[in-house]
Amino acid sequence: MMKGVCFLVTVALLALASSLASASDPSPLQDTCVAINDPKDGVFVNGKFCKDPKLASADDFFYYGLHIPGNVTNPVGSMVTPVNVEQIPGLNTLGISMARIDYAPYGQNPPHTHPRATEILVVLEGTLLVGFVTSNNENRLISKVLNKGDVFVFPIGLIHFQFNVGKTNAVALAGLSSQNPGVITIANAVFGSDPPIDPDVLARAFQLDEDVVKDLQSRFWWDNN
């Protein structure tokens, strides 16, 4: 009887381990999988076609320009310079990317989420108020003021933001755990969707007058990415 129970427990544990393993991204099975847009003679892997590894070159793994400040003269007062698989095709299947974020005085990287990545941010210059909000039903704000050299982590999928509380420009670098982390800016997605969400839906959801919702939907929602 005991042997039978042990056998069933072992089978259950192996099944659980198998399900957990299959729930994560597989490790690459080749050294490189440089992304190409032309499917001719390519292999489709992780959202991109791969170049023949024998044809890979140094330029496939190179990006120039991250030292150049982004233009922050816009309504939100910030600019994100992404360095993901679109800029470095050699990042395909490697599960990592980065970005530079520039902030004007009192500029912000508005509340947004990365559906496919955890983010780790380091402040290079200035002072930033940063934070993220936990999921329902708690919706707890976890926030901190960061100075030069400070590091903060935003868990995958959670709404987060950065706000320059200083009187001078600020700069940060972010590392992300995906070659293509994606970004959903909350205000843009909710009030700037195409086609628009029914105003009655948003009026009820946000407990606003429908005319207020229509006014918000009529505005131009700046994309700082």
Automatic annotation (TrEMBL):
Main location: secreted
A single GO molecular function term of this UniProt record: manganese ion binding
A single cellular component GO annotation: apoplast
Record keywords: Apoplast, Disulfide bond, Glycoprotein, Manganese, Metal-binding, Secreted, Signal
Domain Cupin type-1: 64-214
Domain of life: Eukaryota
Residues that coordinate or bind Mn(2+): H112, H114, E119, H160
Residue pairs linked by disulfide bridges in the UniProt entry: C33-C50
Residue positions binding oxalate: N109, H114, E119
SUPFAM superfamilies: RmlC-like cupins (SSF51182)
A Pfam family that the UniProt record links to this protein: Cupin_1
Location of the protein in the cell: Secreted, Extracellular space, Apoplast
InterPro entries cross-referenced by the UniProt entry: Cupin_1, Germin, Germin_Mn-BS, RmlC-like_jellyroll, RmlC_Cupin_sf
Range of residues in the leader sequence: 1-23
Function: May play a role in plant defense. Probably has no oxalate oxidase activity even if the active site is conserved.
Family from the record: Belongs to the germin family.
Name of the protein in question: Germin-like protein
The organism of origin for this protein: Vitis rotundifolia (Muscadine grape)
